[in-house]
Each structure stands twice: as structure tokens, then as C-alpha cells.
Amino acid sequence: MHDSQPEAIPSPELATREQGFRARATFVKRKLTTRRGWLGDYDYAWLCLPSMPFAKRSTRPPPFYALDAELPLTLAIFTGLQHALAMLAGLITPPIIFASALSLDSATSSYMISASLIGSGILSLVQLSRIPLFGGYYLGTGLISVVGTSFSTLSTANAIFDAMYRDGTCSSTTAADGTVTRDPCPDAYGMVLGTSLICSFLEIGLAFVPPRVLKRIFPPIVTGTVILLIGASLVGSSGALAWGGGSNGCQSFPTSGIFQLCPTTLAPRPLPWGSPEFIGLGFLSFISIILTELFGSPFLKNISIIVGLAVGCIVAGAAGYIDGSSITTAPVITFLWVHTFKIGVYPPAILPMLAVYVSMAMEATGDITASAEVSRLPVDGLEFDSRVQGGILSDGIGGFMSALFTVTPLSIFAQNNGVIAITRCANRSAGRWCCGFLILFGVLGKISGFFLAIPNSVLGGVTTFLFASVAVSGVRVLSFAQFTRRDRFVLAAALSFGLADILVPDIFTHLFDGVDSPSSGLEGLFNSITIILSTPFLAAGIVASVLNVILPREMEDEVPDDEAREFEEQMHTGSSVEKVEV
């Protein structure tokens, strides 16, 4: 009889790990080698065929793919691309406007577009992940919550840049005829980045405030007013000016210098601002969006903004209006930090940027609610509150990280909710493909060079529609208010400041001109107040918030509890600046 060693028994952890590996390998093999893995049973014809008049379409909707359901590979790639294209216009517009406002060269402008795309892709992955933290808190929503530069940041940054050129932080040149031309000022962009970096801690703190408390402080009468004025002000300060030919000074019709014609006298076919050629190009892009909505397939309807840009660029290129130098000089491959900016803090911008982060927190609440609703998930309860908390926290940390990425604050977008609703695909796999496409678009520098070459009039026709859609979102949020006498009073008082700013932009610019030799600290305070009062949505938002808190509620203004809850649930789905389902 000889000794025999007992057989080794694998540990449960090792067995579980091996089983998990085998299951994963089997899943990948099935996904890559079977028709069902690639195509599934989705109706791709329904997604891609146009809506022709009198043509019959299938009445059977395609299957709904939930958050973590198994998704066919082709559909994941297809819908991921659709998500990326749906948010593309909103991502490239802010850096183009920032670069134009600061007179930056094409290489820097192209890099800013690439950085915006790459930063959006990276931080959107964080929102998709929903990482558990301490004490039941989370980082990210776990939904297809993609991020981009908030239009509230765009509106405020323009006012900050104006203040920098007024107080001498940035220099300008005055021609013999009195025309003022802004000199390039990349340091101004670095100061906005630095200021947004330190102000991001406010939104990080707001992430730990219960969502119900935030919604009571900022009801629809406040958030709707803010959103309405963001869209309306951007139409006047950016969209319509670009539609006419440019907003770099040529709209003032100077009699000397390169801005006598738009966009400059050095352009391939320069023309006076407001020329019929410019108006026609912008209108062509505009009408293309409308025709896409009328006759386009569900896929095209979700990217109608890109269709408008494409049609306008094709005609503009054929007519000789496109300057291809930005494409030829753009690098083939680029990434973050290829260009850097001197990070600084502009003290007068601190208060306005704090207000922007409060606005972004409220936008995030509405966007997350809308995303959960179209994803067929609960919009109340502890799980939903944790998604809101995780989304706001990710937005706040994203504001900090985006500054390090050389990008202005990135917050949750809502364009993608329309993609989810139409394609019936709320799966996070599609969201990950979307992030991959965004990063790819940013890394390929020639793509950013092409976006920079889009003529102002084409971009203006599209962004005017985009910004007007933001204003309509504000009207929709206002429709959830009860419009009692108290609500009407708050709205009228807020719009008094907001509309005054839009219609007479310089009304508060010279408010402190009569103060003789103020100290540097006092001058910074004056500049901060001027920026807030000169930004329509900030001035109106502060007035609406203060009056909402201090005005007493009369007996007839009170609403039954169940009706109040209904308004609150409705507000969930509407309080978003970027809810532009086009």
C-alpha cells in the first residue's frame, strides 16, 4: 500500500473567476460569430427609410433595448454614431464662438474643438459608469448621459470676455475711423478655465443636497425663465450675427481694416454683412433642417442639425465661400494639451461662474429625469435620487477636470433623449460607442479643421435654430408653472431685467463709470456686478430666485398636494437648457 496525495480542490474564488472568464469568452464568441450577435431582430429599414408622403410605414415598433440588455453589435455601433452626431453641433459651436470672440488663430481654434470632443467623450464615460462611493453616494448616472459645454457657460463667457477687453486685461486696436478691433487674447480663455475650476466645488457641494430641496428652491417659474433667456440672448448675440456674415466686428460696417467685409477681406469671397448671399446660405441650412424633419428617416431626424450643416457646406464649397486653410494646416492626429493656456483667475468672473454652476445643477436634474423616463426607469425613489446625485457630482467634478482638459465646463446634454425615444435603445453599450466616436472625432485633427472652415452664415443659420430651440425648452418649462398672480409677478420682474439686457445690451455697462479712482478690489466688484447685470439669464435668474423666496404665497396661490406633485413630476422632464430634440 503506497501513499497517495489528495487531489487539489480549487478555491471557490478561482472557480468563480474561471467560470466568469468562460462565460465572457462564450458571450464574445457568440456576439462576433452569429447573425443574432451582429444584427439581432431590430428593424433597420424602419430606422433608415425616409418618411415619404403617402408612403406606408411599418406600424410595428422595433424592440426596446433596456439599460443593460444584450444589444446587437451593429445596432450598438449604429446608435452610438447617431448619439455622437446628434450632439456634434452643440459641442463644436461653443469653442468656435469662444475662439472668434478672442480673435484666436486657426491652429488654436482647431485644437479647442478637438479638446471639446475628446473631453466630452472621456467625461461621458464617467457619467455612464455610475461608480459607487462612500455612504451610498455615486459618481455618474448610469444612463446614456452625455456631456458638453452648457449654453449658460457660453452666454456668461461672452460677457466675461467683453469685460476683459473693457478693463484692459485684453488689448484692442482702434483704427483711424474709430473702429475697435480685438487683439488675440488666449490668456482670457485661460482665466475663464481657472475661474471655472475653483467654482466647480460649488456644484460638487450641491450634489449632496437632496434633489427635492433643489427643486423647491428653483421651481419652473425660475428655471424656465433662465432657459428662455439663455436661448433668446444667444440668438441675438451669436446666431443671427453669424447668419449675416460674422460677429467679429464686420457687422459694424467699418470703413477701414480687414473687417470692412465679412468674415474678413482676406476670405475667398468677402461680402458686406447682411448680403443676400450670406442670408441665402444660412437659409439653405435652415430649410434643410425643416425638410429633414418632414421627410427624413428617424436616423436623419435625430441629426437634422448635421444635415443642415452638410447641405450648407456643400453649396458654400461649390460657390467658393469655404477657406480650406484650416483643414490643410490642421494636424492629422491631435490630443489634449497639444496647446495649453496660462491658467489664471479673473476675480470679477467668480460670482457669475458660481451662478453658472447653480444653473448647471438644475439643468442636470431635468436632463437626468428625462433620460430616466425615456429609458423606462423610475423617476422617483431612492434609486432615482441617487442617479440625480451621481449626475450632479459627476458634473461638478467634470467642471474641474474639463478645465484641466483646457475645455470650459462640460455638463449633461439632453439632445440624446430624442435619440433614445426614437430608436428605442437606452442601452449603455450604445453610449460607450458614442463616447468612442466623440474621442475619435477629436483625435482626428482634420475633422476639427473642417468644422472650423464652415462659413459663418452656414453655421449661423443652424445655430439660430439651435438656440431658438433652447428658448422653446424654456417656454415648455414655464408651462409647468401654475401662473398664479404671484408667479406672473415674479416672471414679469425677472423678464424686465432679462429683456432689457437683450434689447439694449449696453444698458448696465456704464453703471459705475462715475466712480473716481476705485481701489482694485472695488473695481473687481464693480466688474463682477456689471457682468451679472449684462448677462440676461443671470440678472433675470437672480431676480426670480430672490422674489420666489421672499414673496409670500397667498391663499388662492396654494395648490392641492396631489396637483403640486403632478407639477413637480412634470418639471422633472423639462428643466433642461440643452433639451433640443432635433
UniProtKB/TrEMBL annotation:
The segment annotated Disordered runs over 560-582
Q: Which UniProt keywords apply?
A: Membrane, Transmembrane, Transmembrane helix, Transport
Looking at the keywords, is Transmembrane present? yes
How does it sit in the bilayer? Multi-pass membrane protein
For this record, the Gene Ontology CC terms, alphabetical, are: fungal-type vacuole; plasma membrane
Question: Which family does the record assign?
Answer: Belongs to the nucleobase:cation symporter-2 (NCS2) (TC 2.A.40) family.
Q: Does the keyword Transport apply?
A: yes
Q: What is this protein called?
A: Xanthine/uracil permease
Where are the bilayer-spanning segments? Answer: 84-102, 108-126, 138-161, 188-209, 221-243, 278-296, 303-322, 334-358, 433-452, 458-477, 489-508, 528-551
GO MF annotation terms? xanthine transmembrane transporter activity
- Mind telling me which NCBIfam families this protein's record contains? ncs2
- Name a Pfam family for this protein: Xan_ur_permease
Q: Where found?
A: Membrane
